[in-house]
Specification:
Layout (H helix, E strand, L loop, with lengths): L1 H14 L5 E6 L2 E7 L7 H13 L12 H17 L7 E5 L2 E5 L5 H7 L4 H16 L12 E3 L5 E3 L6 H4 L2 H16 L8 H13 L5 H18 L8 H17 L3
Antiparallel strand pairs: 1-2, 2-4, 3-4, 5-6
Helix pairs in contact: 5-7, 5-8, 8-10, 9-10
Length: 258
């Protein structure tokens, strides 16, 4: 079966894959094909790195995926490294020039949350899984709901380890980045009071390493002045700014705690 599956994937890739990651069904099972990327780095990533250096905020460094076969090899290595920590991630089924074949481990958590009337239990489960990954010394790289999946037995796992986060910054900064990006990805489910975000942070804090908080405090100090200026006008600002302020306000009491 393995040879037949590899041939089917290669035929698909040779015909032209329409996206970076696409599903393929074979013998009653679903798999995912990931193809190599062209170079993603540009002048703005250099500007971002300069800005991160000037502000001394490590987690703001650019994390562009490597291109070509190097990018695929690095992602496969990250998946295998995280799997060894006992965290649910796709298995690397096959690796060929130009593509990876990964197992399917479940539907997207973001989609599953949207289907539910009571969204909080699954969101809590997701951030607790992120805390467990951090507790085991790992990091995700994006921390977003769209890059988390829900397995058939209810376990939350992680997909898409494309970005070179560990190459751009230290472990604690990468974990802090996960937390911030997770909050930004779930803020739309908050009613505007920040209470859901606070409960999620409390659940994370109960299980996660304490080393992430100095990095988050550093970011908070930097954006604090901007938040003070914008807060009085938050109802008139765009949704992205309003949601970012909501995340900031939810974080303030948490990061002040020892």
């Amino acid at each position: 079966m393995q040879n037949g599956l590899i041939k089917a994937v290669q035929d698909y890739v040779d015909r032209g894959v329409p996206a970076r990651s696409v599903p393929i069904d074979w013998d009653g099972q679903r798999y995912w094909i990931k193809i190599s990327l062209t170079c993603q780095r540009n002048i703005w990533h250099k500007v971002q790195d300069i800005f991160a250096g000037l502000t001394r905020i490590e987690l703001l460094r650019s994390t562009v995926s490597a291109s070509g076969q190097q990018g695929l090899d690095e992602e496969a290595a990250r998946l295998e490294r995280v799997a060894k920590r006992g965290v649910l991630v796709p298995k690397v089924i096959a690796r060929q020039p130009g593509w990876l074949l990964l197992s399917d481990i479940g539907p997207c958590v973001f989609d599953e949350v949207q289907k539910r009337d009571d969204k909080e239990p699954l969101l809590i489960r997701a951030i607790e899984s992120l805390a467990l990954l951090h507790q085991k010394g790992g990091w995700h790289g994006t921390g977003q709901l769209r890059d988390m999946v829900l397995s058939p037995d209810g376990e939350v796992g992680f997909i898409d380890f494309e970005e070179g986060v560990g190459e751009a910054m230290g472990r604690e900064a990468a974990q802090a980045r996960d937390v911030l990006r997770f909050l930004v990805s779930v803020v739309r489910f908050d009613d505007g009071s920040g209470q859901l975000l606070t409960r999620l942070l409390t659940a994370y804090r109960a299980q996660a390493p304490k080393t992430v908080w100095p990095h988050i405090r550093h970011v908070m100090r930097f954006i604090g002045i901007l938040a003070v200026i914008l807060n009085p006008f938050r109802k008139k600002l765009g949704r992205d700014v309003r949601e970012s302020l909501l995340v900031y306000n939810a974080l303030k009491p948490i990061v002040r705690q020892p």
